[in-house]
Design a protein that fits this description.
By secondary structure, the protein is of the alpha/beta class. It has 9 helices and 7 strands. The longest helix is centred in the last third of the chain and has 18 residues.
Length: about 220
């Protein structure tokens, strides 16, 4: 049924767009995901979205305890349209809700934090599905994040500077991990069903009259 819906939608896409969907979805991953905890600067948020999308990370988990996640569309270059954004902002402790969800879905939690026992980025064990947590700009990851952490992690640096802007740090982490998982014998790609669901979602966002097409399909007027 879904395959038929995508076929109907894809007839309203250019050949170039259809080919691009196939190319991009083949490189998407949920094996690695990023958790953004109380990021409040829109410029950082925008850069984070753009980096995640560019390197093929499909899901972003956004925790909003004290700050609402906002971004500049022009800076993000529309990256949000192609991502699956999961927001946690309804619970007394949204951080715990997010981490419980990730743990229940088989993710190890790696928190970026300057701690004495933190491991280097290159030493993260990627034999398991991995969620990396980026904390808020001023104070970093919360006590809740550290409580749920399977490990803490730092980006090795060789200058006098001890920390990076959160969006720069995230870009370095995303590039490193997405490159490494593609080199490992791990199931980093999406399933066929996940790929199809994404292509349908992207097609809907690309076609102005997609609601009409979906309605016609659901009522049996399009076969």
């Amino acid at each position: 049924m879904s395959e038929r819906l995508y076929k109907i939608l894809s007839e309203h896409l250019t050949e170039r767009k259809r080919d691009l969907f196939e190319q991009v979805v083949s490189q998407r991953t949920r094996y690695f995901t990023l958790v953004l905890e109380d990021i409040y600067q829109a410029q950082n948020a925008s850069a984070l979205l753009r980096s995640a999308e560019a390197w093929g990370v499909q899901d972003l988990h956004i925790i909003e305890n004290r700050h609402t996640f906002q971004h500049h569309r022009k800076i993000a270059k529309g990256a949000k349209d192609w991502l699956t954004i999961k927001r946690y902002n309804k619970m007394p402790d949204n951080s715990a809700a997010c981490f419980e969800t990730l743990k229940n879905n088989g993710y190890q939690i790696i928190v970026t934090a300057l701690q004495h026992d933190a491991i280097a980025l290159d030493q993260i064990d990627l034999s398991k599905k991995t969620a990396v947590v980026m904390g808020t700009e001023l104070t970093g990851a919360s006590c809740t994040a550290l409580k749920y952490a399977d490990a803490t992690m730092v980006i090795p640096m060789h200058g006098f500077t001890e920390s990076l802007n959160v969006s720069v740090a995230a870009a370095a982490i995303i590039q490193n991990i997405t490159h490494r998982i593609r080199e490992l014998n791990v199931p980093w790609q999406l399933s066929d069903d996940e790929k199809l669901a994404l292509k349908i979602d992207w097609a809907k966002k690309s076609i102005y009259w997609s609601d009409y097409l979906v309605e016609m399909f659901e009522t049996g007027e399009l076969h």
